[in-house]
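Can't attach files on this board, so I'm pasting raw text. These are the components:
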Amino acid sequence: NAGVTQTPKFQVLKTGQSMTLQCAQDMNHNSMYWYRQDPGMGLRLIYYSASEGTTDKGEVPNGYNVSRLNKREFSLRLESAAPSQTSVYFCASYKRGRFQETQYFGPGTRLLVL
Amino acid sequence: GQQVMQIPQYQHVQEGEDFTTYCNSSTTLSNIQWYKQRPGGHPVFLIQLVKSGEVKKQKRLTFQFGEAKKNSSLHITATQTTDVGTYFCAGTSGGSYIPTFGRGTSLIVHP
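---
Top answer:
Structure tokens for the assembled complex are below.
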């Protein structure tokens, strides 16, 4: 199993450009998440998807849109990138077992907006 | 909404010294999870605590969940350079599937 995969690993954008960050998981998890990580700010939730066909806003959704394409894939779109969106983006999926709950994170996408 | 505070933000230690990071929640938690993120890496699950007063050990790491299920700690005995990274706690309450993360404690170990 690959776990959670993300593409691209790195990206440089100019202000106003758009892009989509891709995420896929092969663990058959229902819930998926997008976080951004900035120095000293920890992990902040952008959007999440509790199950296929549903998406909801997290703590910092402005400037982003998401699509839960199917159970495996959850993409994050920046329609008009801004320098404030320079960050590391992590996708995660959530396993809710009978005795344990675990988030599995992808390797991250490092985004620089100039 | 639920908030999880984590202290300290940074901790410098000499190799061999102990290290502790603390998490406090504004609400009672159903469970708390701990993650480790190596520099340049992604968060990796370490452990989950569910029961009031629970203590779990993983080699040199000791995890505690408070009696009121509102606080937790991670203690590392005799740190090694391999312990370097940021440690996050994440709490879940009620039936939520959205963990609330603390801001993390970055551990720097000096050889």
